[in-house]
Amino acid sequence: MTPVGATDGDVGGLDPRTKLALALGGGVLIVALPELFETCVLWALVLAGVLLLGRVGEYGRWLRLVMPMAVFFGAVTAWSAGSQAGIAAGLKLLTLTSVFFLFFATTTPEDLGNALVRMGFPFSLAFVMSAALNFVPVVGRKARNVMDAQRARGIPLEPGWAALRHYPAFLGPLLIQALQMAEDLAEAMESRGFGRPGRTFFKRYRLRARDWVSLILFLGIAVAVLVAS
User: Fold this and answer.
1) Which terminus of the chain, N or C, has less C-beta within 10 A?
2) CA distance to 19, 47, 74, 220, 226, per residue, from 92 (Å)
């Protein structure tokens, strides 16, 4: 039974399961590529996708967080295996995480969780995953609010060893708010009959022609790239 007003999953785009398969396949392809040039091409394709989606600002903010990790990973690899291997390792990490940035930028946690349930995943496992993804930005906003409130009280929370002894004033309220959110969520789930059989979906998730074409096209490109390299 489909509720009134239901629509196909990801109207005008790909099914969440297709995008998950493409993201995982892209990750495997990035790791398997031996040449630096192919990795640069894949990163260029990811950047083109970011431009087409209009997520340049979000990608720039995300890039500021990931770039230090990529540089550190590349430096460690360069120290042990040479400069070219270090550049390739850092770029592979950057491209790999960029692929999943695109995935999560185009797929809501609810769509991903519900689509996985339709694939046979246990509903409780899919719900925990989607709830965790939803809680990340919420906890981030609460962390900024707590930090601003404590700074207004004159408690220094700037990064560094000097402020380390003041971190309990930040972590304590944040932990209490996170536990309160978890309790509210548990009560809401219980009141809505969480885990009861006969669950229906607001959206219909099905693989359409565009999904199969995308998967086949990606598979053909991946095989051609691996054979050519």
Assistant:
1) N
2) 20, 14, 9, 21, 15
